[in-house]
């Protein structure tokens, strides 16, 4: 496992940095399909063209087929891999390259220099393809997921501002008796009015008719970069949270107007990404209390897929956040705790500086 030992406890990186952290089942599935596919392809080509195992064309075909299987798009069951580890590509192409060179040494004795030049040319082509496939193929897909995540936060910001325009205040992070979440209060502003109209505010969030609503998955509350085999809970989760506390954008009491943000709405965080807190269902009136959380982004956790940091995401080197003015930005995981605290408070007159 990709973890470090501190005393007697293991600390796991967040997000997991290596492909094998995604679990054994996807690994076995991937390898099994790869072996079967290459075996069938090898058998077909040998019967069809009567090629030998060291034939350069066959080796090139196997190498290309392997790389294709390892870089398939995000459709299940390949999705958990997010692109194969670069070492897999290195081994694949180096084996193919060594076979080509060995074959060239044999053919130069039997067929002359022309066959040798053909083998060297093919070896050069394979080496070039190897360099190309070493680029991390998952990065373009992850960039698209990160953009989608920012779009979801933008939607949340638009809904909160529409609520503010209607009631002249942001919703409380929880209100009512029994309490309900701000995510429920803003349902009408996400084109989810039917769910809101069915919600029974006289029952707990997971009781009676509300249970069926809590079991409804809301895609805009789930970051698309979270692996499919990440820890599951009984109800659909949320990856986007309010940070609560008297000095934050979500005070425990009183109204919460934009005019109260004396530090400036463009300097105050409204909603943060916290994928390391996946035990919280979206319908539950529970968020992150500033005084209970550790200030940091993507901090390592004591369990896989967990982070004690107040902000965490499966994006590399940082996380997306929503500011009170509706802007979404990507915060580096190198952001200092003091800067984070300044951004999480709305009227403490502290300076968040450049970020």
From TrEMBL:
Domain spans labelled DUF1559: 141-279
Keywords: Membrane, Transmembrane, Transmembrane helix
Any Pfam family matching the protein: SBP_bac_10
Top-level taxon of origin: Bacteria
Transmembrane parts of this sequence: 27-45, 57-78, 84-106, 118-139
InterPro entries: DUF1559 (IPR011453), Pre_pil_HX9DG_C (IPR027558)
Keyword Membrane: yes
NCBIfam families reported in the protein's UniProt record: pre_pil_HX9DG (TIGR04294)
Protein name: DUF1559 domain-containing protein
UniProt source species: Thalassoglobus neptunius
């Amino acid at each position: 496992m990709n973890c470090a030992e501190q005393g007697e406890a293991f600390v796991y990186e967040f997000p997991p940095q290596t492909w094998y952290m995604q679990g054994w089942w996807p690994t076995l599935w991937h390898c099994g399909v790869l072996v079967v596919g290459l075996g069938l392809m090898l058998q077909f080509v040998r019967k069809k063209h009567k090629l030998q195992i060291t034939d350069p064309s066959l080796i090139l075909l196997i190498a290309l087929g392997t790389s294709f299987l390892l870089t398939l798009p995000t459709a299940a069951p390949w999705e958990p891999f997010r692109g194969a580890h670069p070492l897999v590509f290195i081994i694949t192409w180096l084996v193919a390259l060594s076979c080509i060179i060995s074959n060239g040494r044999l053919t130069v004795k039997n067929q002359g220099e022309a066959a040798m030049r053909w083998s060297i040319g093919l070896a050069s082509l394979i080496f070039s393809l190897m360099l190309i496939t070493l680029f991390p193929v998952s990065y373009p897909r992850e960039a698209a997921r990160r953009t989608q995540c920012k779009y979801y936060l933008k939607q949340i910001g638009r809904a909160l501002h529409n609520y503010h325009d209607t009631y002249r205040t942001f919703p409380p992070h929880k209100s009512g008796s029994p309490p309900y979440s701000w995510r429920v209060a803003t349902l009408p502003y996400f084109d989810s009015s039917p769910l809101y109209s069915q919600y029974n505010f006289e029952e707990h969030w997971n009781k009676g008719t509300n249970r069926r609503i809590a079991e409804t998955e809301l895609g805009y509350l789930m970051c698309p970069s979270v692996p499919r085999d990440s820890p599951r809970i009984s109800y659909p989760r949320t990856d986007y949270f309010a940070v609560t506390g008297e000095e934050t954008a979500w005070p425990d009491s009183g109204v919460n107007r934009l005019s109260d943000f004396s530090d400036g709405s463009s300097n105050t965080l409204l909603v943060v990404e916290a994928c390391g807190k996946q035990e919280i269902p979206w319908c539950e009136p529970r968020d992150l209390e500033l005084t209970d959380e550790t200030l940091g982004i993507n901090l390592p956790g004591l369990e896989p897929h967990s982070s004690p940091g107040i902000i965490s995401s499966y994006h590399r080197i940082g996380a997306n956040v929503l500011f009170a003015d509706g802007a979404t930005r990507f915060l580096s995981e190198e952001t200092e705790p003091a800067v984070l605290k300044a951004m999480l408070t709305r009227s403490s007159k502290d300076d968040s500086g450049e970020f």
